[in-house]
Automatic annotation (TrEMBL):
It comes from Phaeodactylibacter xiamenensis. GO terms for biological process: inositol metabolic process; phosphatidylinositol phosphate biosynthetic process; signal transduction. Its cofactor is Mg(2+). This is Inositol-1-monophosphatase. SUPFAM superfamilies: Carbohydrate phosphatase. Its EC number is 3.1.3.25. Mg(2+) binds at residues 69, 85, 87-88, 213.
Length: 264
């Protein structure tokens, strides 16, 4: 399987869908917004973008299956499966905050082998394929080399559910507020991961995640030399709802803070 060629075609597809997202920015009326939950919104834009992506990916990889956020196609498991978030950062989009992205991950027999995050407003295509390295608009990227948490800039996202763990999250957040350069909350986990991969952020942590939030960005971080784990240091981050991603130099200390907070 030629992953580099599949990646090239899929990046072009995300660029086409990004044009649609830009076109619709600011055009969605309140009556066209659906509330999946109080802090989880969706509109025709998400759904139309997902249909565009699914149809394009079916042409690139015939016979593939899908796991999608908006359920425009039946979610099934297969040897080759795309994990699709057509608009990561929907609330940002609807409020015209310019941080949102398209996220695609490709699994081969359950293993992520390709990831794409397209940051729409900056026209930045982050992508990687297994053992092929990580790239931003054709340029090779690597995670940062900042060696310690006190020198690091971190990213996070606030939980959308599972509020029983809020105090543990706040405990970790309080530590990082006092012992790092700072913390940013952009509202798109896919963008956060892409920024870890290229060294803009040194680390990212979040819980209450879905597979389509992180499938694109996680492989990019790994191929850029970074470390991705769950909150216990294990590998259950795609379906386990929690993730840490960072450069290798701060990974152990980063994990220890989060693991301790969530064990207490």
């Amino acid at each position: 399987m030629d992953l580099s060629n599949i990646c090239r075609q899929a990046v072009l597809l995300t660029e086409q869908t990004a044009r649609f997202l830009r076109q619709e920015l600011g055009n969605v009326s309140t009556s066209q917004i659906e509330e999946k939950a109080l802090n989880s919104l969706v509109s025709y834009v998400d759904k139309t973008a997902e249909v565009q992506l699914v149809e394009g990916l079916q042409a690139i990889t015939p016979g593939c299956s899908f796991l999608t956020e908006e359920d425009s196609v039946e979610n099934t498991e297969g040897e080759l499966r795309w994990i699709v978030d057509p608009l990561d950062g929907t609330t940002n989009f609807l409020f015209q905050l310019p941080v949102f992205s398209i996220s695609l991950g490709l699994e081969l027999e359950g293993e992520l082998v390709l990831g794409i995050v397209y940051e729409v407003n900056q026209s930045e295509a982050f992508y990687a394929w297994k053992d092929g390295g990580a790239y931003l608009n054709g340029r090779s990227i690597r995670v940062s080399q900042r060696p310690s948490l006190p020198e690091s800039l971190l990213a996070t996202g606030f939980p959308y559910y599972d509020y029983d763990q809020t105090q543990a999250y706040l405990k970790a957040l309080e530590h990082f507020m006092q012992h790092t350069r700072g913390i940013r909350r952009f509202g798109s986990a896919a963008v956060d991961l892409a920024y870890v991969a290229c060294g803009r952020f040194d680390g990212f942590f979040e819980y209450s995640l879905q597979p389509y939030d992180v499938a694109g960005g996680a492989l990019i971080v790994q191929e850029a030399g970074g470390i991705v784990t769950d909150f216990q240091g294990g590998g259950n981050w795609l379906h386990g709802g929690e993730m840490l991603a960072s450069n290798a130099l701060i990974a152990t200390d980063f994990l220890n803070v989060v693991r301790t907070a969530f064990k207490s």
